[in-house]
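Good morning C.,

I know you're traveling, so I'll keep this short. The sequence:
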Amino acid sequence: MATIKKEIPVIGMSCAACAITVEKSLAKHPGVKSAAVNYANHAAWVEWDEKETNLPQLQEAVQHAGYELLIADLEAEDLESIQTQAYLALKKKTMLAGLLALPVFLIGMFAMHMPYANWIMWALTTPILLVFGRQFFVQAWKLAKVRQANMDTLVALSTGIAYLYSSFNTFFPKYLLGKGIEPHVYFEAAAVILFFILLGKTLESQAKAGTGAALKKLMGLQPDEVSVLDGKNETVKKTNQVKAGDTILVRPGQRIPLDGSVLEGNSYVDESMLSGEPIPLAKAKGDSVFAGTLNQNGSIAIRVEKSSQQTLLSNIIRRVKLAQGSKAPVQQLVDKIAAVFVPTVLAIGVVTLLIWGLSGIEEAWLRGMLAFVTVLVIACPCALGLATPTAIMAAMGKGAQMGILIKDAESLEKGRKIDTLVLDKTGTVTEGKPSVTQFYPTAHWNSEHAQIIHALEQRSEHPLAKAIQTYFQKEAGPIEIQDFQVKVGKGISGKIKDKTYRIGSHAWLMGEKVNPNTVLSTQVEPALEQGAILIYAAENEELIAAIQIADPIKAGSQEAIAQVKAAGIEVHLLTGDQAKTAQWVAEQVGIPYVKAGTLPEQKAAYVQALQAQGKKVAMVGDGINDSEALTLADLSIAMGHGTDIAMDAAGVTLVRSDLRQIPALLELSKKTVSIIRQNLFWAFIYNLIGIPIAAGVLYPSFGFLLNPMIAGAAMAMSSVSVVGNSLRLR
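The tokens, ready to paste straight into the viewer:
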């Protein structure tokens, strides 16, 4: 039997509970083997037997639940356009709802006795409910049809009942006045609640607007067009039309479009997107090259070995996509509570109505209806709905002040559970750019040599030349160079005042009959053991200096790692660099676990292996090669100076690229979760006490029946207390 597994976009989901509903609808459909719906990227990964079902049938099943599967093969740009339009529409509705809700609130709180106050509030509130807040009522109805409930249900019920009751009292006030009851209205409660809920949805949608940006930028690394060589003829083709065995031409400054091997030419290729290492590699005939890497300074002809769908870059894109979709949808705490809370409140309201109605007292059913409305008003989800987002917003604001940008609430919440920290080396623990860290002059060195080395390196296109130029910048001056030569992968040479100067590798200089220097060899031995790069300079047959180039350790890395370890968190170092260098860096900063020479998929596998041991893993990185591991980690942290792709894949960005911000992030996470729990506790205590009183539990003993107006005020006070508690984070 043929099985198909595919990612399918889903539209219409407004909360994590929606994702659960879609997932259940798909999972129970005949022929579906597995279904996982991710609310974060609004997509479903579905595996099904094509003999038992098909896409239109799956679409119909999801439509029955009130949502929509986009089964047409859409380009990434089309899907992004749909999501952008939805966000802009939501933003517009929120702004318009706010403009109408403000005067309703002011009249309801401070000018309720002005002429035609109720009519003005009704006119302003009606479009808020029927136009701007329509989605909540539609969603509540869809959920009711499949016997589900969430925050949309609470919003629709409380605002809908408040609106209908207030409208009745506006159009027919004499009915209640004739019964000796004041016809209060609650338009301001309905209007303000809907506005705040819409505002929360808009902020959430805005935060999620960039979830697909990492994939989009990864895809952008592979050129759309490529120059194909057929003999002496050169034609331009689409990259996806090129096949294995074709020959392509890549010029300086262009990205390599496909995996292959060099047929002709020499160049340096920046492979930092794969290895994370900043130093480009020399490429000559027979060397392998990879899609997405950057050809720097020489034209090279490449024999294609893999099609566009099989390249290493395509595999990275595929794995990041799977990693995003593989995260099980997290049912938010408030939605879980709402699933039980809503039917409970409804049941209490109905029981309250029946008990009052059948009590036999005067105006029993009218009193019962008032008690029913009071129960729904006091059980309004405002405090419950604000408990988490207000704390999250306050924490995000505090984080921003500290230079910590937090993308979503989930990342902030997970920080407190982290027990393992995985650090990329280059650009994370170290500066991420090569520089001269040590200079070793010999007895043959003199002050003029610095000016000569600077002049020679100015002509070099080698990736390390810039570091040497910078080091000798103060000695810069005009020097006439003759017979300048570049030996790719070896070094450079030139004649100055009848003397030959060479700068390059030790092996090349020895091959050029330069005399060895035992004193210098002894001096540089520790540097070689720690994996540093050494460039040698010679005048004629004598070595005049050795230049040590390395990636310096960042200030604060050792301090930050010590703080993290003191908190009981295990620290690991991952790098694409050689083992010697990695081990030396780890020893300098106090990291006990090291893995060197890792490719992107190996970094991801390392994170998964730790998670398989039951560990909660935070991953810190700054490059494209870290994106898959960042996506898989429980908490992903990107360095602010790193690539956009790493920052898009991560949940947290450290603006100053300072590891000392990590302990501050973990502490902020703990405090935020504590505040959220306090908020939820008080929101529940409020309902636990308020609902029975609203139902009339005190009436038999004390003759007290809560006025719906007081219930509305109590609801407002509960919201104020939650907001005030959240602001303590700042």
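Safe travels,
E.
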